[in-house]
Design brief:
This protein is α/β, with parallel strands linked by helices. The protein is built from nine helices and six strands. It has a six-stranded parallel β-sheet, with helices on both faces. The protein is globular.
Length: about 270
């Protein structure tokens, strides 16, 4: 896929969900979490935060508990990490829009500063939608394995999402086009080609001076939020001064875990 040639329009190509083998391999997420525990002293060497608020949005069927390790890590680095406090995420890009806007406003008012948003899977779709709707309140967006581009039906969770949320993914063309397009704030997509839930092509944003994709080799979808290399990348991205953006430096302690830079993707 030539990432740089993607139009901001939602022009879909037919993609398939990840294979059954990749989906079964999602069980390795336990190993990713254990690796993070073992490497926690190294992870604490990441750039320190400046205290700005970070809102963590969980994936489909997940709750704040899934984001607890990330929030704790960010708090240890010096960020003001917030949970979404909406219970389990049963979906609803349209139905949850008002509640998510209110949540972002509350976090912004409480902190008195712009909010960075880290969204895992469906949470990342919400994050991008919030950035489009309320760019004045958002500092940056980081997504983890989030399906917002190309054929977003190419996941192993699409049918369940439509059943539980009552929303068909094809019923929101205007919202989908906005979410898949260029963000009005700095944006980073962290993904894995071995994702067993979401086809990795659907996680790709168009690289620019303020947008990038970071591949984490061999990461699972369920493990992205607790994968040590992904956590390091999140911390590095959030540590950038407000209003500034530099592309991710892959020469850090987890260099071997990252794929090539955007301009080399094909």
């Amino acid at each position: 896929m030539a990432v740089a040639d993607r139009s901001t329009d939602v022009t879909e190509r037919r993609l398939r969900p990840p294979s059954l083998l990749l989906m079964l391999a999602e069980a390795r997420s336990v190993l990713e979490f254990n690796s993070t525990l073992l490497l926690s002293p190294l992870l604490m060497q990441a750039p320190k935060g400046d205290g700005h608020p970070v809102l963590a949005l969980p994936g489909f069927l997940a709750s704040d508990l899934s984001m607890a390790p990330l929030r704790r890590y960010l708090k240890e680095l010096g960020y003001d990490a917030y949970a979404w406090n909406m219970g389990r995420n049963f979906g609803g890009v349209v139905s949850r829009r008002a509640a998510l806007r209110d949540l972002l406003k509350r976090v912004h008012e409480a902190a008195g500063r712009k909010v960075s948003i880290v969204g895992w899977s469906l949470g990342g779709v919400y994050a991008r939608d919030l950035a489009v709707q309320m760019p004045d309140l958002v500092r940056s967006v980081v997504t983890l394995g989030s399906p917002f581009a190309d054929d977003i039906r190419a996941t192993n969770a699409t049918r369940l999402y439509e059943l539980l949320s009552g929303e068909a993914v094809g019923d929101i063309p205007d919202i989908r086009a906005a979410i898949a397009g260029d963000m009005p704030v700095p944006a980073t997509s962290i993904y894995s080609r071995t994702d067993g839930i979401v086809n990795w092509h659907t996680t790709q944003l168009r690289p620019s001076a303020t947008a990038e994709n970071i591949e984490v080799h061999f990461a699972s979808h369920v493990g992205l939020g607790v994968n040590p290399a992904a956590l390091w990348a999140i911390a590095d991205r959030l540590a950038q001064p407000e209003g500034e953006f530099r592309h991710f430096d892959r020469s850090g302690p987890f260099a071997i875990a990252y794929g090539r830079a955007d301009h080399a993707l094909s």
